[in-house]
Give the backbone structure.
Amino acid sequence: MDSNYRKLLLLGNVILGLMALSAKAAGTKPAISTQPTATLNAAVGTSPSLTVVASGTAPLAYQWRKDGVPVPGATSATLAFPVAQIIQSGSYTVVISNNAGTATSTAANVQIGLPPVITVQPLPALGRLDDFAEFATAVTGSAPLSYQWRRNGAPIPGASGNPFQLSPVLATSAGDYSVVVSNPFGSVTSAAAYLNVMGITDQPLSQAVAPGANVTLICGVAGNPAPACQWYLQGGFPIPGATNATLSLTNVTVAEGGAVLSGGQLRPGRRHGGK
């Protein structure tokens, strides 16, 4: 075998040995087993954090980046935001390195914002049967804000606007109305506002009687408390003292016959304010 060839073969073996020793000395390059959370939403003033878990030959060095720019002092496996501020929103990655190489994490989208705060509460409302009623609130907070109106604590399907309009008002619509306002940074529930439904639910029935008979007329009404009523004679003349839902006439005369205006006039009670 040519001596030069032997020398080259020996040199090649030496180089391979040195490379193997170098690789063994360098160890295993970093491998990320747990990536930072993909999305982190946090309210201003809270203390969120991002964490990465990696393996590899020690020592491992960490460098967090925001939008591709290194974050000063962010050199551990956990990136903490002690008092989160909106300006810290952005895309975060971490580069992990050792003598054997580097590994870069997937991006974590961090959004810091203001949770919703109700500045104007919904007001009690008076709704007339077959008409409409409306509730509204005023809220501050970071967009997007979502609304879910509730009646007696139960969500109302499709009631996701502000203001919220209820139409038509039914006798069963009475109750406490509130709204839950939410965004990615929190939620808040308003105070309850009562909807007082007022109106005639059942018209009095016409009756044909002879003079001198007794007559009772009943008008079904809705309201809490029951609204005041006023019965009228034909021609629009109020009957003195006839202010209940039931009207009792004794010894009717021809002047009273056919003269009662169904339902009369309703006024709301005092328990709940109207608008």
Summary: Residues 28-113 form a domain with the Immunoglobulin-like fold (CATH 2.60.40.10).
